[in-house]
Design brief:
The protein has one domain (about 10-70). Helices cover about 70% and strands about 0% of the residues. It contains 3 helices and no strands.
């Protein structure tokens, strides 16, 4: 399946430059970039949905408990 996409001129120049540098096609690089973006966004949406479901179940911790956990990890929390 082929598709035509329109991208900003500055992105097109960057894509062309990267394609030349990496000896890959612009199409291949664009497809990989879109795939990576979609994978991250899909993961992010699933994580948010899981968080909402946990909150709906009451599976949450207090702010104080969260701070205590972060401190155990050695993080500065306030």
């Amino acid at each position: 399946m082929g598709a035509t996409l329109t991208i900003r001129e500055d992105l097109a120049r960057r894509l062309e430059s990267l394609a030349k540098t990496t000896h890959q096609s612009e199409s291949s690089l664009a497809s990989q970039a879109i795939e990576d973006f979609l994978t991250i966004q899909e993961w992010r949406i699933r994580a948010i949905e899981e968080g909402i479901a946990a909150a709906d179940r009451g599976d949450v911790v207090s702010h104080e408990e969260a701070l205590a956990e972060l401190k155990r990890w050695g993080k500065h929390a306030s």
